[in-house]
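Case study 2.
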Amino acid sequence: MRELTVGRRWFLRGAVCLWVIAGLGGAEVWAQGAPPATVYVIRHAEKLTDGRIDLSEKGFERARVLPLLFLPVAGSGRVALARPEVLIATHQSPKSNRPVQTIEPLAAALKLPIQHDVMNEDYALLAQDLLSGKYAGKVVLVSWHHGKIPALVEALGAKAPYTPWPDEQFDRIWRLDWREGRVVLTDLPHGLLPGDSK
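Prediction:
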C-alpha cells in the first residue's frame, strides 16, 4: 500500500477523532500514549529591559547555575532533582531567545540537545506531543515564556497553582509527576541566587 503523506495522515487522524467524539455524544476522547515520568516547567531567566532578545547579566548568571538543580556540588547539602533526559525550549521569536539561552548551560552539562521548534503560542501542540507516548517514562524539562506557562500545564492535565505567572518571578520550577493515572504539580523554588524565593 502506498505510504500516506503527512497531510493525509493528519487528515485521517482528525477524521477518526471527530468520529469517536460524535459517537460518544460530544465527549472529548483523545488517544494518548503513556506520559512522561516527570515534566519540569521553568520560565526563562531574567531579561533585559531595553527590548533586546537576550537575558540580562543576572539572567545569564541564573542560567549558569541552573545545572545545580540537577547536578549539585558535592557537600552542598542540596538534594538533586531527577536529571532531565529531554530539553525543550520555545522557538526564538523577534522579541526573545531567552528560553533557549536559559538552558544552554544545562544542555552542555548534561550533553543533551535542545529541541526548540515550537512557537510560544503553540503550547497546546507541545502538550499534545508530550502526552503522545513519545516521551513515555522520561524526565523532560521545558523552558517557556511565563504568559503561557499556566495554560501549558493545564493542557498537560494539571492545575496551575497560580495564574497569571507573576511578571517579576524567574526563580520557580513547576514539577509535574504522573502517578496512577493522575498528574501532580509541585511548585518549587530554585534557591540558586541571593534573594530567590523560598
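The longest helix spans residues 6-23.
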